[in-house]
From TrEMBL:
GO molecular function: oxidoreductase activity, acting on the CH-OH group of donors, NAD or NADP as acceptor
Organism: Ambrosia artemisiifolia
Protein name: Tropinone reductase-like 3
Similarity section: Belongs to the short-chain dehydrogenases/reductases (SDR) family.
Classification via PROSITE patterns: ADH_SHORT
């Protein structure tokens, strides 16, 4: 967050779970929710990353609980929810942010085990998490999925990953209906953001420059850009919005 920039306190008294939130976009979303007053539960696969992220957030005066949770691990997902409820008593916001992109193969060359992993991490575990979370969600609660601009036109080198992100657009629509009127369900589709996840693209000068060239706003996205949209959708300012996806991609138009 820019130093000196004024920020609201839209999440005072709210409790937010953000998966895969110890770095990159997930961390930025957590930070923004925390700076706006939310009590946070952050998590990822590695204890060291969790500890570091908790330290950074606490140094900013943010109330945060950090847990190890590999989204594929059923017990860790249950612990995440139980410990959230034990410590904070309720859940107002869930941001489902974890994803894997284990292959650059064409879809017809992708091994079954890789197809399973993509479906499991990028789609199925989001559903399983919400199945367990739903009974703790407050009235007026909000879910945000993190999809991708690649959901609209899956790029050849990440085609199956893109297809799992397309599934999240459908999941957003379906769950928005299923969970209304108690809970809103929305989605953010980021363009390219130079995080660890995207480093295989953004560390390559030629590819990075060609993406910037094709982007009307002539830059890559930042985790803060993604956090701003996510936090808006999670907030009461979006209280009449459900089932929608906001593309945050500098004007990139490769959409269905
Ligand atoms: P990132 O900077 O690499 O951060 C990934 C985070 O997820 C880390 O905190 C990592 O910590 C955690 N993580 C990874 N696998 C996990 C798992 N199985 N269970 C729990 N935590 C896990 O990635 P990012 O770029 O912010 O990506 C976040 C989301 O944005 C993803 O859904 C991605 O598809 C989407 N997205 C990114 C871009 C982009 O250009 N960066 C574009 C479109 C969409 P540990 O290593 O400790 O687990």
């Amino acid at each position: 967050m820019e130093k000196g920039r004024k920020m609201g306190r839209r999440f005072e008294g709210k409790v937010a779970i953000i998966t895969a939130s110890t770095q990159g976009i997930g961390f930025s979303i957590a930070q923004r929710l925390g700076l706006e007053g939310a009590s946070l539960v952050i998590s990822s696969r590695r204890q060291r990353n969790v500890d570091e992220a908790v330290k950074k957030l606490k140094a900013q005066g943010i109330e945060v609980l950090g847990l190890v949770c590999h989204v594929s691990n059923a017990q860790q997902r249950k612990d995440l929810i139980e410990q959230t409820v034990q410590k904070y008593g309720k859940i107002d916001v869930v941001v489902s942010n974890a994803a894997a992109n284990p292959s650059v193969d064409a879809i017809l060359d992708t091994q079954e085990s890789t197809l399973d992993k993509l479906w499991e991490i990028n789609v199925k575990t989001s559903i399983l998490l919400l199945q367990d979370v739903s009974r703790h969600l407050t009235k007026g609660s909000s879910i945000v999925f993190i999809s991708s601009i690649g959901a609209y036109q899956p790029p050849p080198a990440m085609a199956m990953y893109g297809v799992t992100k397309t599934a999240l657009l459908g999941l957003t629509k379906a769950l928005a209906t299923e969970m209304a009127p108690h809970t809103r369900v929305n989605c953010v589709a980021p363009g390219t953001v130079p995080t660890h996840f995207a480093s295989f693209i953004t560390d390559n000068d030629t590819i990075r420059n060609s993406i910037i060239e094709k982007t009307p706003l002539k830059r890559l996205g930042t985790p803060e850009d993604m956090a701003a949209a996510t936090v808006f959708l999670a907030s009461d300012e979006a209280s009449y919005i459900t089932g929608e996806t906001i593309v945050v991609a500098g004007g990139m138009t490769s959409r269905l």
